[in-house]
Amino acid sequence: MKHDQMDRRDFVKRLSAGMGVALSPGVFAAILSGCEPEPKASGLLTTGELDVLGSLADAIIPQTDTPGARESGVPQYIEMILAEFTPADDVETFRSQLAWVSSWISQQNARSLESVAEEKRNALLVALDEQAFGAGTSNELPPGAPALFAILKPLTVAGYYTSEIGATQELHQTPFGTFKGDIPYEEVGRSWS
Amino acid sequence: MSDYDAIVVGTGMTGGWAMRVLCEAGLKTLALDRGKMVEHGKDYVNEHKQPWNMPWRDGMVHPDEVKANPKQSRHYLFNEYTRNWLIKDADSPYVEELPYDWIQPDVVGGKALLWARQSWRWGPQDFLANLEDGHGEDWPIRYEDLAPWYDHVEKTIGVSGSMDGLPQLPDGIFQKPMEMSAAEKVLKAAAAEKYPDRHVIIGRVAVLTEQLGDRLPCHYCGPCARGCSTGSYYSTQSSALPAARKTGNLTLESRKLVESVLQKDGRATGVRVIDMLTGEVEEHTARVVFMCASAPSTVRVLLNSKSAEFPDGIANSSGVLGHYMLNHNSRVGARGTLSGLKDRYYQGNRPATVYVPRFRNLDEKSRHPDFVRGYSLSGRGTRAGWDRSENMLGFGASFKENLRDPGEWSLRLGGMGEVLPYKDNYMKLDDELTDKWGMPAVRFHIQRHENEWAMRKDMAVTAAEMLEAAGAKNIEISDRKHIPLGNNNHEMGGARMGRDPKTSVLNAWNQCHDIPNLFVTDGACMASSANQNPSLTYMALTARAAHYAVDKLKTRSL
Predict the structure, then answer these.
(1) Phi/psi at B325 (nearest 5 deg)?
(2) Tell me: the pLDDT tens digits for A46-82?
(3) Which of B93, B203, B329, B522 lies deepest, with the highest CB count within 10 Å?
(4) Which parts of B393-492 fold into alpha helices (H)?
(5) Contact assignment for B181 to A182 by CB distance below 8 Å
(6) What residues have CB less than 8 Å from A162, skipping those under 6 apart?
(7) Cα–Cα distance for residue pair B224/B540, rounded to 1 Å
(8) Judging by DSSP bridges, how do beta strands B4-9 and B29-32 pair with one another?
(9) Which residue in A1, A12, A133 is closest to B391 by CB distance?
(10) How many other C-beta atoms are found inside a 10 Å radius of the C-beta of residue B134?
(11) Do the strands B473-479 and B267-275 form a parallel or antiparallel pair, or are they unpaired?
(12) What is the number of H-type helices and E-type strands within chain A?
């Protein structure tokens, strides 16, 4: 329905416009500027950044009986939002946050987020989620951890459910042809995308 | 000898009807539009496109485009699916003496291609309102004058709706209605119980639920404004244009900006036109001219048609041309959530809302102390989708599993209120600023007054009351009063109908008092706004006026 579609666009607009408020600026810019520049994949982000982004996105929406965020193109979607819709300062902040996650992974002597011990990985993600959406800040948040989820999670969600995979495999598309105003949910069994 | 029998300026909601009636009566008709040609079906380039088919996903518009179009981008149609059907800001400079959103389509078919398809008759009270409370001039027609034309238009365009038996919102000739959702049914029942004068009815929309000629019933894909190749909603392209073309009497020219109406000895002789692609000026003559370009565009052309006889614009001996501009007072309402009904859902995107017809100031009992006239409410009851997760805790498989099911039901209602006619709500031509074709730019001076502000408060209150009666929780009132009147699309007034040539521009047949072969049938003719979406009334007025003109031409008495 028209208004629902407008709400969805507003949702992403709010995110990209509000990044400056929601992201804590530049704490980890130092980490980023200390790094050697990596080759860029197709656009704004390096392959390494896209990789961390993909791991985080998959942690938020993993593969289950349907594909997860990475396979549906969420990292490329977020890269597009950063490149086209986000002020440069906020892009740098976001990249510094990814850099912090990379360095945290290294500190765990792991090569990727997936290879960090599940308990440790989960503790970090829970803490990041609590920090962004919970009642108060978590004690378990590692010192210096950035406010990453406030932006990353909603963008992952928006990117996933507006992708072909998210909209047609995970959720169901409304079939064309009939309108039924009031039917048992069990006849549908899935949210319309 | 004239080049044509008739010229129609504009091809939208009213131009479509004028050209259809005139062509079907055998008149050689020239229809002109400043917009680009959009052919039915083949030019609906974004119809059925999916969010992932779009360059920035799901209608997001690139910030560079927003920056280049600060005015048009204030409107909901300025999304990646439909923004190319709106004018570019650079092509339509205008001056806001007071904040005003002048949202302009830039396509043949105009707002008839882009409209929200709501199709309500006015009630008898609406044609009497000016007379009874003294705001504005008395309408020169009554409901009974227009009723047969409402019938004719409804039969032709196809309107789905229910017979509700409400005197303030007369029933019409309807195709079968669309169904309400579970939450909407709760709202309807709760309102009937607690507020018996607030009827919740299903929207009456110019969308087919049954086949009509070669137009197919709606397939409920949702976003009508991208164009509908099955012709399921009424548009110039789906209905009026094919009918007019079939007669062999239509000449349709797009990208033509009408600069002025040509005049001689108290009659309109044709129009002066600028070819927008070459800049060349053309003149076309005809026996009758219909202005159907939308209220501001029509008034702009008339004001720009100056002569010794009419130094302030053609047919403006009254001096009211450009005054008493109207619109509707909207973007105010309430929303809330309903717990329960978790076992109910719906299938398909219904191109209609539910609607609460006017219930204020219809009689002594419903009299409101703070304002005159009234408003309607419209809205929806739907279940939340994945975007409810914006502030939700959680991630991983359980989070994904949770979003697989729809969320809570929500109910929302928004108001649409009548705006009184005020002389100081006006538009005029700027002395210096022109568009790139040299046409003087418009200056807008249009605002809400005390009555509108008082009504606005009541809209939010009654919307919230109804949601509360339905058992909604988390009720939030929203009053987006910073959005100016023009954003509501319903441009009316500026060349109002009336009985007295000294105080109005048009007579009871939409004919200029001063110039008998010049008709204005678009929103400019409106002497009051009522609260109903105006398109059905515009179409009925146009059909009536065009048939009148045909009769007069046949008897050589125009």
Answers:
(1) -70, 140
(2) 999 999 999 999 999 999 999 999 999 999 999 999 9
(3) B522
(4) 397-404, 450-469
(5) yes
(6) A8, A77, B51, B52, B57, B58
(7) 22
(8) parallel
(9) A133
(10) 10
(11) unpaired
(12) 8, 1
On whether residue A7 sits in a domain, the answer given is: no
This prediction has a pTM of: 0.93
Whether the predicted pLDDT of A8 surpasses 80: no
Subunit contact B52:A186, Cβ cutoff 8 A: no
- Is the pLDDT at A100 greater than 80? The verdict is yes
Residue range(s) defining the domain that contains residue A110: 19-187
Name the minimum distance, in Å, from the CA of A89 to any CA of chain B: 16
B382 contacts in chain A (CB < 8 Å): 1, 4
* Closest listed residue to residue B120, CA positions, set B427, B468, B355, B415: B355
| Average pLDDT taken over every residue of chain B | 97
A136 or B134, greater pLDDT? B134
Residue A104, both tokens: 């945290």
pLDDT at A6: 54
Q: Say how far apart CA B487 and CA B482 lie, in whole Å.
A: 11
Phi, psi of A180 (to 5 degrees): -125, 115
What ipTM does the predicted assembly reach? 0.93
At B407 the three-state DSSP class reads coil
Q: Which of A9, A153, A188 sits opposite B59 (nearest CB)?
A: A9
- Compute the distance between CA of residue A55 and CA of residue A102 in angstroms, rounded to an integer: 11
pLDDT at A143: 81
Within a domain: A83? yes
Q: Residue B267 pairs with which residues in a beta bridge?
A: B264
**Closest by alpha carbon to B315, among B556, B139, B518?**
B518
> Is residue A2 in some structural domain?
no
| Residue B434 DSSP code | E
**Within-domain flag for A192:** no
Q: What is the pLDDT of residue B493?
A: 98
Q: Do A176 and B220 touch (CB under 8 A)?
A: yes
In B491-548, DSSP assigns E strands to 518-520
Question: Per the structure block, which two tokens stand in for B445?
Answer: 């001076």
Nearest to B76 among A6, A84, A180 (CB): A6
User: Which domains are present in chain B?
Assistant: 1-50+89-158+234-324+491-558 (3.50.50.60), 161-203+328-418+448-483 (no CATH)
Phi then psi for residue B402, to 5 deg, are -60, -45
